[in-house]
Amino acid sequence: MSMDIRQGIHDLIGDYAERIDEDRLEEWPDLFGDPCRYLVISRSNFEAGMKQGIMYAATKGMMLDRVFSIRRANLFEPHRYRHVIGPIRVKSVEANVAVVHSHFMVARIMQEGATTLFATGRYLDRIDVSTTPFRFQERIVVLDSDKIDTLLAIPL
Known about the structure:
Number of domains: 1
Helix content: 10-25%
Strand order of the largest sheet: 2-1-6-5-4-3
Number of strands: 6
Radius of gyration: 15 Å
Order of helices and strands: HEHEHEEEE
Shape: globular
Structural class: alpha+beta
């Protein structure tokens, strides 16, 4: 695998976290191809082979609807995330698709400043490496916990 592919994968994963953490959610869907698959699911449901989860999108349009609802429809206490991601492991690259796994921890920062560890888990990605820049074909967010203590409004 070339260093260009490895760097492109790291750049995509870094851009993903930065856009969410810096509240640039309108730019978040641009990191995905169309169609795509974005799924947030608990580990136990994932291991049981369930196909639906806490958050799901199959197109960029569905992702844009999610952002619209965050901005205009959902009522939730304002907060932000801070991602810590790593290690990033490229499992394979075949037919211009990289299979990539990485771990994450997400802190939630409330408007008044309280910070808590919100979620941990792993990303299971399929990344199109034939385009520049690279784009997610699929991102499955597998949560370590079966419970989220509040409405999951912002993508993980």
